[in-house]
Design goal:
alpha+beta; Alpha-Beta Plaits; about 30% helix; about 160 residues; single chain; cyclic pyranopterin monophosphate synthase activity; 5 strands; 4 helices; elongated
């Protein structure tokens, strides 16, 4: 396992110097889900939530969040993102109606975009919670993780499909 890179020799936090790293195409895909009551999922699916188009607004919130990641996570580098895409799947897994969010983020740069993909997913799911909390305060955000990343010196990572 590699050592932690966000600490200097004295143990002080610092932003990693990426100036000497080559710019390469970087891609990260993250996912997560929000579980809810069947009636809440039906509201989202029908587009009749009081606050409007839940998934449309969650998509925009996720895109904005990816772009603002370095403002939220102190040691993240500001990046020129070349693509941010969010997809939603409505499903009933067992007895848990849910919305699954998947974010794909890309850049050409010296550092990866995993944090941007994770931030996009989290904020999109939080937006769904915010827009539906009046009818379902028991929603649960869960299973947020990186599915895959490509590019850079460390190469590719694919999450174990078994979890």
């Amino acid at each position: 396992m590699s050592s932690l890179t966000h600490f200097d020799a004295q143990g002080q936090a610092h932003m990693v110097d990426v100036a000497a790293k080559p710019a390469t195409h970087r891609v990260a895909v993250a996912t997560g889900r929000i579980e809810m009551q069947p009636a809440t999922l039906a509201l989202i699916e029908s587009g009749t939530a009081k606050k409007g188009d839940v998934l449309g607004i969650a998509r925009i919130a996720g895109i904005q969040a990816a772009k603002k990641t370095s403002d939220l996570i102190p040691l993240c580098h500001p990046l020129a993102l070349t693509r941010v895409a969010l997809a939603f799947a409505l499903a009933e897994k067992g007895n848990a109606p849910q919305v699954v969010c998947t974010a794909t983020v890309e850049t050409v740069g010296p550092t990866g975009v995993e944090m941007e993909a994770l931030t996009a997913v989290q904020v999109a799911l939080l937006t769904i919670y915010d827009m539906c909390k009046a009818v379902d305060r028991g929603m649960r955000i869960t299973d947020v993780h990186v599915l895959e990343k490509h590019g850079g010196k460390s190469g590719s990572y694919l999450a174990d499909p078994q979890g």
